[in-house]
Amino acid sequence: MTAIVGRDGRRLRHAMSVRIFLFLAGAFLLFPSTLALALEAHGYKMAGDATRTRIVVNFDREPEPRWFLLRAPYRLVIDLPTTKFAIDPKALEATGLVSHVRYGQLNDKASRLMLEAKGPFTIERLEILPNEGGAGYRLVVDLEASSQKAFNAALAEQSAITGSTQTTPKDERLGLRTGREGQRFTIVIDPGHGGIDGGAAGPSGVAEKDITLTFANELRDKLLADGRYTVFMTREKDEFLRLDERVRIAREHDADLFISIHADTIRLKRVRGATVYTVSEKASDADAQALADRENLSDQLSGIAIEEENHEVADILVDLIKRETHSFSVRFARTLVGELSPTIGLINNPHRFAGFKVLKAPDVPSVLLELGYLSNAKDEEQLKSAEWREKAAGSISKAIEMFATSTGNAGG
């Protein structure tokens, strides 16, 4: 009996061994083929700022991605065939528009790469390119900060088709914000400096960042009381914001007008009065260039030094939009100078221009307003005067009304 049990046990163990062997053999045959088919993502890079960010992912061979958009939060989801991700975690640190990067295996046939953004965006480019002079391919994604309207348009287009979506046409993504009949005119007010960046200081020690925030709050309240505008602030407290973040906020809110408020100093203390600046690659004068250089260094005060990339845009439409935006900016600047002249003091040649980074949104008319110079004691006293600020805010409101009416979208 014992021998029979032993033989049965051996037979059972033998049968089980055969089954296990067959199972493992089958798995061995399948598993290596899965590995052989798996893509390898062996590199990941991000570069840019809060207005435009490029993502590059290297693959050992050509991938076939499918992508779609999600909101709340704003995300770009890229689905890939089964992929091994060999990515340096340091490369995934938040950069520019991208606040989080996630990746992993979606199921036994697919992997997923998910990019979460700080705000709405458009996809300027998403394509697969062969690596020049080497093996493999790379996925290149260019994201650009945009408005909620543009993002919603892309979502609506996505919902109308199945599978991966396509980016919205450029004329919709980059169309000018002005002239939207029946829609409320939207203004973004940017109190200059903030947080660790105090800006200029007056003879009494008052900081530019406090002057600009106080005035911006008062201007916002006046515009909201009018009832015809939607108004946003880039900051509502004493906090540091990078220059590209300020531009991104203007674009996120689909702004019809962006006004950056400042009160700088100048080497000649006798010089006083308000100045209105628009953007230009060539400065109108040495003082305008010096001011732009100082303002453009704001990011470095927090230990953040961002080298501006040369984003040359070959697309004729985008170039035309930039030109038309500049035309609107100049139009508002001239209107603003006209309204400020009778009420507050202006410097000689009050409309000037230079390469201010904060004014470089391609599709939002933008001006930088120097309320006065804190290096001048009389200007400082005016800037601290509630009565003077009320008068200045009133003139700015009138200029905005004229500009909004001329573009056809001032109204509730």
CATH hierarchy, class of the largest domain: Alpha Beta
How many H/I helices?
9
Radius of gyration, in angstroms, nearest whole number: 29 Å
Biggest sheet strand line-up = 11-10-12-15-13-14
Q: Give the termini distance in whole angstroms.
A: 98 Å
What does this protein structure show overall?
This protein folds into two domains: 39-168, Immunoglobulin-like, CATH 2.60.40.3500; 185-407, 3-Layer(aba) Sandwich (Aminopeptidase), CATH 3.40.630.40. Helices cover 35% and strands 26% of the residues. It has 412 residues and is of the alpha/beta class. It contains nine helices and 15 strands. The model is unreliable at 1-35, 162-179 and 302-317 (pLDDT under 50).
Summarize the structure.
The chain has 412 residues and is of the alpha/beta class.
Helix and strand arrangement:
Blueprint: H1 2-37, E1 39-48, E2 52-59, E3 66-70, E4 75-81, E5 83-85, E6 98-105, E7 110-117, E8 121-130, E9 137-145, H2 148-159, H3 170-173, E10 185-191, H4 208-226, E11 229-233, H5 243-252, E12 257-262, E13 274-279, H6 286-296, H7 316-340, E14 346-354, E15 366-370, H8 377-383, H9 386-407
Parallel strand pairs: 1-5, 10-11, 10-12, 12-15, 13-14
Antiparallel strand pairs: 1-2, 2-9, 3-4, 4-7, 6-7, 8-9, 13-15
Helix pairs in contact: 4-9, 7-9
